[in-house]
């Protein structure tokens, strides 16, 4: 019955843009961490991607506020675009902290977290378009499990990173700086999991 | 009038399970802190309780997504199960940090926070069943005040703990580690208060 | 058509009280930072303002739970009063940390953040009354942009503060203490931006 009412389909385009934007950010982050040169230019590029994310989020909220019939619950749309935006925000914050802390080079664990973010956001790029059709349920569930598995991997890397930090003989300033950076990057992997959970919820509700 | 519509009562069972699970976690945490032996086995037990909490939360969200008439607002159900799950998650994270930081023994303040968590979750175990009947309003309000009082006590302990930390002559690594652990445990007491506030809100709305 | 139904207008009074209360807190914070004398009395005054904020929030939630027709979405009312309350809570937490950390004097960056909070909350005091009338849209948008600009300024000050912290030759304890205080104060500026964004959302939805 709901199918008879014309719905605002533009939301799907915006969610998919946000997912692609977060993946672009993760690739730029991994590039910075794997080749720590031209860091000013690379950090500026990540900041640009973060600004693009802000615009997508703002457009989504504006559309939400002006749309009477939405393809699914307003609160779900709000939460979904919010968590998608958090991913790129947190990656940008992590890089910004590396710059202002004058970190001389990334650690293996930081590179590991960047890889988890590349892989998680790659799945989100494939996952979001599946929301357009309720037939996609089995694939949605499979992808959500994959994102959850990656989040566990991110958690494992963070634990390893924190343990190493205090066994490394780092000075206090470097312990404080790296603990901050690891926590920010690990939060970004949590937000990828949040996005997957929200997508799963929406799909089940509309199945 | 709403009473004429058959409602999905299974949500109450799940909330009560989640409350009992968080209390079981708090008891295991207090046992670990009061008798710091067999710590690997005790930490593994807390992790198991945390996994049980994840399952209860997942079952609740799945039921929510499949249920047309819910006993109260969908957003309240979402928030309530989320905050209940946060309690055990944070206790597990606190213990996991103690392990990876190779903490040699808990402090009095850590034991104090564990006691606040035991007491708060004991009240939640009694509080959640009262949601089943709108006649329970006076008892609900009394218990919510008791949880708020305990959260203030948790706050007081955390302040004492942070002040002592910097007067203790601890080295920088131990300051960083303990500040992290205290903040995580104190957040768990905040989540107990959140649960009480949500229960109060639901009860007032449905009175 | 909705205008024909008598709506509960008391919510506007409560939002405006909460905005004025957060501004009063910001002025007290700036006074403490600019003239670091009688600090016990000044901190106690900020704690009183925080308690007043708790009462406004509690009254709003109680009214929300008892009101059938609300002037706008229940979730928006919940979010708006929650974020307004966070502003004064975070300012009080920041001051409380300064006291228990026995900070000998505020930094220029801390004073800068206090000024941003004074300016942001001053705009919120003017912004909230505009929600009463849908004709005010252009002014609402202008003020929201001004709050966003101030949040960027807060972000810039925090970055400067964190960078200086690690170049200052501070000892580890002072790095940890000040990082904590800066993060808490900067979060308060984020919550001002959240309030502006929620007001903008409500205004667009009801335009």
Q: Overview of this structure, please?
A:
With 207 residues, chain A is mainly alpha-helical. The first copy, chain A, contains six helices and no strands. Chain A has helices at residues 10-34, 39-66, 74-100, 108-127, 137-167, 172-205. The longest helix of chain A has 34 residues, at 172-205. The relative contact order of chain A is 0.16. Chains A and B meet through helix 5 and helix 6 of A and helix 2, helix 3 and helix 6 of B.
Write the layout of secondary structure elements.
3 copies of one chain form a homotrimer.
Chain A: H1 10-34, H2 39-66, H3 74-100, H4 108-127, H5 137-167, H6 172-205
Helix pairs in contact in A: 1-2, 1-3, 1-4, 2-3, 3-6, 4-5, 4-6, 5-6
Q: How much of the sequence of chain A is in beta strands?
A: under 5%
Low-pLDDT ranges of chain A: 1-5
Helix content of chain A: over 70%
Mean of pLDDT of chain A? 93
Can you give keywords for this protein?
disordered N terminus, 207 residues, mainly alpha, 80% helix, homotrimer
Provide a brief overview of the structure.
Three copies of one chain form a homotrimer. With 207 residues, the first copy, chain A, is mainly alpha-helical.
